[in-house]
Amino acid sequence: DDGSSVIESVRRLEAGVLSSQNKLNNIVDIFNIAKADSSDAEAVFTALGSLGRVYAALWAKGLLTRSKDDRDSASVKVKEWLRDNYNQYIDLLRSTLQKPEAAMQVMALKQLMQMLEKEGAAVGKVSGVYEFPNESYLRTLEAVLDNDNASDHVLRTLADSYLNIYDDLRMYFYRDLAKIASPDYDPFKKTRTGERGSGTVVEKAEAFVQNAFAVLNMIRVMPKRKAEQFDSLWVP
Fold first, then answer.
1. If pLDDT is split at 50, 70 and 90, which confidence band does 38 have?
2. How many angstroms from the chain centroid is the CA of residue 145?
3. Distance between CA atoms of residues 91 and 73, nearest Å
4. What are the start-end ranges of the H helices in 158-235?
5. What are the distances in angstroms from CA 162 to CA 39, 219, 221?
């Protein structure tokens, strides 16, 4: 069966990367399976999850962060290559949020949140101070809320698995919501722009309002005003 052989191949490639830095090129092979526009949803699902485990390990090893100790040009190039591939993975997850299948949307959101936690922990370790990776979080929220394909399942997962539990995610959610909703917000000059009269801007705005209100109605916990009051953190 082709599907099961692809899944076995993904697991073998993942095991190679996790066991040896000489096998980092396996990441490209797994990514190609993950982005394949195939009817084999299980293989895509497996590959996306596999990359999540690989990048979690690379964050933990410090291979996705730059530090003052990076004097060796070869190691700097490896880190830059890994970071470039990581960014492609994040973009792929955000585009997966647009797929019609609710299960794929939820899986993409969970992977994005997992990567956010790993990024925050790794960056904080290098800088020595707590840093919430809000730029990454904001772009993930934008991908969910600006999505006219967003399922009730993915919106409920955002609220129940994250915002109702973690104080940092909830506080930054309210801040980022206000930012995304502001009329002049357009960080990459393409998010809400389209050709005049194309309907893109209006459709995006309608989707955003509908999704934002849906999530707000699912939040059952009052926001805490100060970080000192936080009990539960997603980003350590």
1. low
2. 14
3. 27
4. 167-181, 200-218
5. 31, 10, 11
Tens digits of per-residue pLDDT, 160-209? 999 999 999 999 999 999 999 887 776 544 444 443 333 466 777 889 99
For residue 89, give the amino acid letter: Y
Structure tokens given for 90: 């994040």
Q: pLDDT of 196-225, one tens digit each?
A: 333 466 777 889 999 999 999 999 988 776
With beta carbons less than 8 A apart as the criterion, state whether 233 and 167 touch.
yes
Tokens at 142, concatenated: 């934008």
71 CB-contact burial (10 Å; exposed 0-12 / middle 13-18 / buried 19+): exposed
Per DSSP, the three-state class of 89 is helix
User: By C-alpha distance, which of 80, 75, 78, 85 is closest to 54?
Assistant: 85
Structure-block tokens of residue 233: 């953190």
**Burial letters 80-117, b for 16+ CB under 10 A, else e:** eebeebbebbbebbbebbebeebebbbbbbbbbbbbbb
CA distances from 87 to 83, 94, 123, 184 (A): 6, 11, 16, 26
Give every CB contact of residue 208 below 8 A, 6+ residues apart in sequence. 145, 146, 180, 181
- Rounded to whole angstroms, the Cα distance separating 115 from 54 reads 11
